[in-house]
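Supplementary Methods. Inverse-folding protocol.

Structures were first reduced to a discrete structure-token string of length 211. This string, shown here, constituted the complete conditioning input.
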């Protein structure tokens, strides 16, 4: 949706819904184009993005385009309830939800990368380290880092996600697994791998488990 020409006509909400449900490409295009060019909607999205800390001047078109595509899908699937809100309000809500989700993902990715490069005992809390410990020597920290490095990249990532309190459903999405049951199996495998690694490196295990 990148044509900024003036729309041919004004649409009511009912006409927009009727056009989207018609599956007629021309009618669908005209209805979405009308929304795309609606100044009130554009300004609402722009103000929301500014509030959320995005570069509204350069990103409004991107977010609005995605929101219109999602709105079209929801109308066709019957998910949009006309009794809950008007179309423009609903589209702004889609942008709000999507942008909030992106911010959460970015925050988690930053936290995850920090843990991957600066691992501490919290990463191994459930597997090897006393969770009540309030202090670790530098020697213990280095031992934990070395133990983590002995795992496969997949297991390093899974253990890190668990340390970030990701739900199994979220880990499944992040790792490309089919369901949360697969995640439970993978977590168990990784913890067994960690225990095996430490069993084969008793010096590390001793340092990590020292009180």
């Amino acid at each position: 949706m990148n044509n900024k020409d003036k729309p041919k006509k004004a649409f009511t909400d009912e006409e927009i819904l009727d056009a989207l449900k018609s599956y007629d490409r021309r009618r669908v295009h005209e209805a979405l184009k009308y929304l795309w060019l609606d100044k009130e909607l554009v300004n609402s999205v722009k103000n929301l993005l500014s509030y959320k800390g995005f570069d509204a001047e350069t990103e409004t078109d991107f977010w609005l385009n995605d929101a219109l595509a999602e709105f079209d899908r929801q109308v066709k699937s019957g998910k949009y309830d006309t009794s809950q809100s008007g179309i423009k309000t609903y589209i702004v809500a889609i942008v709000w939800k999507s942008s909030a989700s992106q911010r959460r993902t970015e925050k988690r990715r930053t936290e995850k990368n920090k843990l991957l490069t600066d691992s501490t005992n919290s990463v191994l809390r459930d597997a090897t380290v006393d969770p009540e410990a309030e202090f670790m020597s530098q020697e213990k920290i280095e031992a934990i880092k070395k133990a983590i490095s002995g795992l496969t990249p997949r297991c390093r990532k899974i253990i890190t996600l668990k340390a970030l309190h990701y739900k199994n459903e979220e880990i499944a999405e992040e790792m490309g697994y089919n369901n949360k049951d697969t995640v439970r199996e993978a977590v168990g495998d990784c913890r067994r791998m960690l225990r095996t690694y430490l069993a084969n490196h008793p010096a590390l295990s001793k340092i990590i488990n020292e009180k």
